[in-house]
Specification:
The protein is mostly helical. It is about 80% helix and about 0% strand. It has helices spanning about 1-10, 15-30, 35-50, 55, 60-100, 110-120, 120-125. The longest helix is centred in the middle third of the chain and has 43 residues, at about 60-100.
């Protein structure tokens, strides 16, 4: 049991941060909202390439538990951040191309009522 706990902690935080970043970089362009299984498969693929011994040294139940409790929330956070970055880039590009005269800006934190009004506005309809 102690040996398995040592295996769980043997990879550095830096390693895991690189793994989360790489997995999110690969997943998000292909799948905007990956399932837990897709997250797991992507991380297992990364580990097979960069730390092949890691999963082999854990029992399957230990791996599943570790993934669900610790790794999955971290990967989801990184992917959420990546999606937010993509959305911000799209918004900036859209508004810079059309300009304020043709397309009014709407704050992403605006109420759903404000966003609905923006979508129905004449300027927005004209831009599309």
């Amino acid at each position: 049991m102690i040996q398995r706990l040592v295996v769980v902690d043997e990879l550095s935080d830096e390693f895991w941060n690189r793994a989360y970043k790489k997995v999110s970089k690969e997943l998000i362009p292909k799948i905007l909202f990956p399932s837990d299984t897709e997250y797991c498969e992507a991380l297992e693929k990364y580990l097979a390439e960069h730390a092949s011994h890691y999963i082999e040294n854990l029992r399957r139940n230990t791996w599943v538990s570790l993934f669900e409790s610790k790794l999955l929330p971290e990967i989801k956070n990184k992917c959420r951040s990546k999606r937010n970055d993509l959305a911000a880039n799209i918004r900036n590009t859209m508004f810079s191309n059309f300009g304020e005269q043709k397309l009014e800006r709407v704050d992403s934190s605006a109420s759903s009522k404000k966003i609905a009004e923006w979508k129905k506005s004449a300027k927005t309809r004209e831009a599309y």
